[in-house]
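Issue: ligand-bound run for nicotinamide-adenine-dinucleotide - logging full I/O for the record.

Environment: standard queue, default settings, no custom constraints.

Inputs:
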Amino acid sequence: MGTLDGKVAVITGTGGGMGRAASLVFAREGAKVVGCDINPAGNDETVELVRRAGGEMTGIAPVDLTDPEQARQFVEDAAAAFGGLDVVYNNAASLRFGPMPDFSVEDWRATIAGELDIPFFVSKFAWPHLARRGGGVIINVASMAAMIAGEFPPMVGHCAANAGILGMTRQMALEGAPHGIRALAISPGPVLSPASDRDLGDDQAARDAITKKTILRRFGRPEEVVELAAFLASNRASYITGANIPVEGGATAW
Ligand SMILES: NC(=O)c1ccc[n+]([C@@H]2O[C@H](COP(=O)([O-])OP(=O)(O)OC[C@H]3O[C@@H](n4cnc5c(N)ncnc54)[C@H](O)[C@@H]3O)[C@@H](O)[C@H]2O)c1
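Outputs:
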């Protein structure tokens, strides 16, 4: 028996990285997964991987979640796919890095849209579906940059957007409780996906610059984040709401 048996889980950004890992773990725990991505090829591959592992998943792509109309349509399609929604895992994000004052107004707006608009849009449109079921769980993926500044790469938009996610999550928890909706944030530290591993290649100096703030002195693995998400989405976490849980190798502890 899985910890998410019978639950319908929307996961955004399932075209790769942690969204793919989340699809596999949530499906392993018995959830019916509805994923989406702006990248259809990666999304199809995730659906195939989940089904091959014996899980249940529907993929919808391409969807650009920075567009509120596409976000609304995706949520409606997701709710129709399995007859309702129980869990929203707001994983998708796109962002830009750059130092002050070179970070342009366009960089700023693209980062706020890619990191803060997306989870707001998806949650807003999913809210009535969750409430209709008598409750559910919204998990917003933030970042350790919500809590501390980051030296490398420079990340003013990323810090601001993710601090916004934490504020939004607390408010969603307060407003959600009367409807049975729990809202939580997870704040990962540096996580190495197959794609970022490839991009970093043998640049050990860049790898060390990224991981030096972690107590564990290493990158996290996608599974180390999404196993927590699966627990938080389950009824086992029924007394946890409004919280932000760091998964960052201790980076914010010192
Ligand atoms: N990887 C890290 O080190 C790290 C650290 C802290 C926080 N995070 C957060 O974790 C989450 C997942 O990170 P990841 O490393 O797996 O990222 P990723 O870039 O590998 O995956 C994000 C997915 O979202 C999709 N996406 C982007 N913009 C979209 C849009 N407008 N509409 C629909 N889909 C869109 C991408 O195509 C991609 O498949 C993100 O919210 C990210 O900010 C990651």
